[in-house]
Design goal:
mainly alpha; about 85% helix
């Protein structure tokens, strides 16, 4: 290996590492770059130590890595910075990458639920099949159980209860996706429950009340369930078809993405619980309550398709740059090994 040529080729990366290690505040992308450069320079130092007798070069790189190590370890200890980066990069990027899966789940769910609701509303045989009584005034009448469910408990306690229940249901859908059929069963159960209530309310001529109580919180809440179902099923499909990667590697990668979604959905479901606990049972006009629900949904979709898309593109760009850098480094090393030089270390 021609150490002089190697050092000259890597000088820019080492200077960049020194610059980042000396900055007081780093952006998220700069922090990722710092970690990548630190790891790469550590490998380069190990390579030089086995080939180069130049103590000045070894000492200089060792000092640089010591300085960079302090920043790397310090950035890992900054919990709030990591939390912020999770919600600005990791979580939205993972949602964006999985969107075809959960959008497909949403489409199938809506079609199945709507079809079942129409059938239940207009067919006695459907009610017989699902064991639904013909006397449902206790549920559908004004002031019935469907409406009082949202107001019979204190708002804060009800919001906490809803948050816990939704988190449990979402986690079940998410992590049973690896087996596929259990997740499909849970999603169908949710679609059937929605269809039964909607069909009975439609038969009683009270669809306005049904949508007035469901849409303020249910739009975002069901989206969270769709996301969990889509990401869970993607994990299960990865086990069947790992693509070009090994099955173990592909499942491990998708498992990390699934865990990321599980953590992020806790915050989304907290918003759903607050909407269901304080907005849905409130005395605000129904159009206002529905509008609040639609705004929450629009913000979530914007978060996925704008913030998430940008974060995913940034990740792809960094990965491409890293691969390009590694390839150039390997090609250069091969050239140095085959190029005559006055200083070769063997």
């Amino acid at each position: 290996m021609d150490v002089d040529a190697y050092s000259y080729a890597q000088r820019g990366a080492w200077d960049r590492l020194a610059y980042l290690a000396g900055r007081r505040k780093l952006s998220g992308a700069e922090a990722d770059e710092l970690v990548a450069l630190y790891r790469r320079t550590s490998q380069q130092l190990a390579r030089l130590q086995s080939h180069s007798p130049d103590p000045e070069l070894i000492a200089g790189l060792s000092a640089l890595l010591t300085k960079a190590r302090g920043r790397v370890l310090g950035s890992k200890g900054d919990a709030w910075s990591q939390v912020g980066r999770f919600f600005t990069h990791r979580f939205p990027a993972t949602l964006y990458r999985a969107w075809p899966w959960w959008v497909a789940v949403a489409a199938v769910f809506v079609i199945v639920s709507t079809g079942l609701a129409v059938w239940i509303a207009g067919s006695g045989s459907a009610r017989d099949l699902f064991g639904i009584s013909d006397h449902n005034d206790w549920l559908t009448a004004p002031g019935g159980e469907f409406e009082t469910y949202y107001s019979e408990h204190p708002h804060d306690a009800f919001a906490a209860q809803v948050w816990t229940n939704n988190a449990w249901v979402t986690a079940m859908v998410l992590f049973t996706g690896v087996l596929i059929l259990p997740a499909v069963y849970l999603l169908f159960g949710n679609a059937l429950n929605t269809a039964v209530t909607g069909g009975l309310m439609a038969d009683a001529g009270r669809l306005d009340s049904f949508f007035g109580f469901i849409l303020p919180h249910g739009t975002l809440e069901l989206t969270a369930v769709f996301v969990a179902g889509g990401v869970g099923l993607k994990l299960g499909w990865t086990l069947i078809d790992p693509g070009r990667s090994s099955r173990l590697e592909a499942v491990a990668r998708q498992g990390r993405a699934t865990a990321t979604v599980a953590l992020g959905l806790v915050a989304v479901l907290l918003v759903c619980g607050l909407l269901e606990g304080f907005v849905t049972p409130s005395s605000m006009p129904v159009p206002v309550k529905i509008g609040i629900g639609f705004i929450a949904e629009a913000l979530f979709l914007g978060y996925v398709f704008f913030v998430g898309r940008r974060a995913a593109l940034e990740q792809d760009a960094r990965a491409t740059a890293a691969l390009g850098f590694g390839g150039a480094e390997e090609d250069s090393a091969k050239r140095w090994q085959t190029t005559p030089s006055t200083r070769l270390v063997k």
